[in-house]
């Protein structure tokens, strides 16, 4: 991530404040995010397999203990980004490797726009009136920076891997 700050001080404050409101139940909020993700793109469901088990429905996936662990991890990544708003570049290597892992299991870069839509949907549903246009813009900017770093994981893989 560039050393230049993608977020203004005001945007960082909005992100921290809004994330704090959600910190009491990250898995519940993550369920909102992933429910929306599967509503927007049901073709992503087969990417989530545990012990070679294919889920028959989004509901089955969303209730599986292994998937709930995945939700916890996703929410921890968001939390790490929020915790490092002043220095997102310290997460660069971690996010690049996370991108490589996602590519290895068949995630397409294009799917991250749907994940972004799902993140904003979750924030809107869970924050209610506190989800202002300024909050939306701040989160969109943060998400774009995170995805940009994760995309480097795709770009750094040799052909054929």
From TrEMBL:
UniProt-listed Pfam families: Globin
Catalytic activity from the UniProt record: Fe(III)-heme b-[protein] + nitric oxide + H2O = Fe(II)-heme b-[protein] + nitrite + 2 H(+)
PROSITE patterns: GLOBIN
InterPro entries xrefs: Globin (IPR000971), Globin-like_OT (IPR050532), Globin-like_sf (IPR009050), Globin/Proto (IPR012292)
UniProt keyword annotations, A-Z: Cytoplasm, Heme, Iron, Metal-binding, Mitochondrion, Oxidoreductase, Oxygen transport, Transport
Major site of localization recorded for this protein: cytoplasm
Protein family membership: Belongs to the globin family.
Protein name per UniProt: Neuroglobin
Gene source species: Malurus elegans (Red-winged fairywren)
